[in-house]
Amino acid sequence: MTKVLVATVKPFIPKAVEGIKNIVSQAGYEFDLLEEYADQAEFIDAVADADALIIRSDKATREVIQASKKLKIIVRAGAGYDNIDLEAATEKDIVVMNTPGQNANAVAELALGMMVYFARNGYNGKAGTELKGKNLGIHAYGNVGKHVAAIAKGFGMHVYAFDPYIPKDVIENDGVVCVTSAEELYSICNYISLNIPATEQTIKSIDYQLLMKIPEPAVLVNTARKEVIHEDDLLRVFEERRDFVYLSDFAPDCKDVMVEKYAGRFFFTPKKMGAQTAEANINAGIAAANQIRDYLENGGTTFQVN
Ligand code: 3PG
């Protein structure tokens, strides 16, 4: 019998799991669930006899992929698939997909939420600042970037975006000013929202030279990936600019230095939680299950990434 494994260290809410289970059962497949596993070995064991796999940020390494005996498809219920060894999957003819857009609003709401939280001094009762009238630069304009823009416009922010892969008219139709380089974006906007994936080109690409361009007072908001930041450069910028603030959905590796030296100038969620809403769990989980069914029954490859 075809087996679908949901392996999530960070579990979906029960309603999302129920929805996935229903789709899987209606298709006549077996459903298997591995949540909050403490060791990668448990994941490796569970994947051995699975035909299809749904994961979140779980690490589908070469070792995991090679341990699978009959895996045909992996769906990352979410946007970023930097946690999957695509080469290892392709070598075994395993199709890899993501579910683009399904958790984008949740991530965008967190980006704006962190901005308001910080602008109001963590709600400590003292006078803060407003987002209205401030320049926000969106780097880049994918599903999350688009949602960040829509919400920010509701706040009355002036919204700019840089994305070399999205046509200018698509960006400008949303009432967002399209700029032609990251340097230009960072030179214009006090607030920068990072919405780039972690790829060979983007890892450590947010560096000293870019960050120093942000006008005072500078607020860098990262709901993308910690790996895109050049952390040595980030610390150098913190040292040289007292106005610089970093708000992120994951603590950087240099967190201890920041806690020691730059208290009050950063905020980090305790655990990546951009996509942690009931709606995002349900949207992404159900989309993943439907994509698996479509692939196994019809050979549908929409959102294949390898
Ligand atoms: C994504 O790439 O979709 C987000 O980073 C969410 O990741 P998560 O499902 O592990 O919360």
Mean pLDDT: 98
Bound molecule kinds, no repeats: 3-phosphoglyceric acid
Order of helices and strands: EHEHEHEHEHEHEHEHEHEHEHEH
Largest sheet: 7 strands, parallel
Share of helix, binned: 25-40%
Task: Tell me about this structure.
With about 300 residues, this protein is an alpha/beta fold. The strands form 2 sheets. It has a 7-stranded parallel β-sheet with strand order 8-7-6-9-10-11-12, sandwiched between helices. A 5-stranded parallel β-sheet has the order 2-1-3-4-5, sandwiched between helices. Strand 9, helix 9 and strand 10 form a beta-alpha-beta unit. Helix 1 runs parallel beside helix 12 and helix 5 packs across helix 6. The protein is elongated and about 60 Å long. It starts with a strand and ends in an 8-residue tail after the last helix. The structure holds 3-phosphoglyceric acid. 3-phosphoglyceric acid (3PG) binds next to loops.
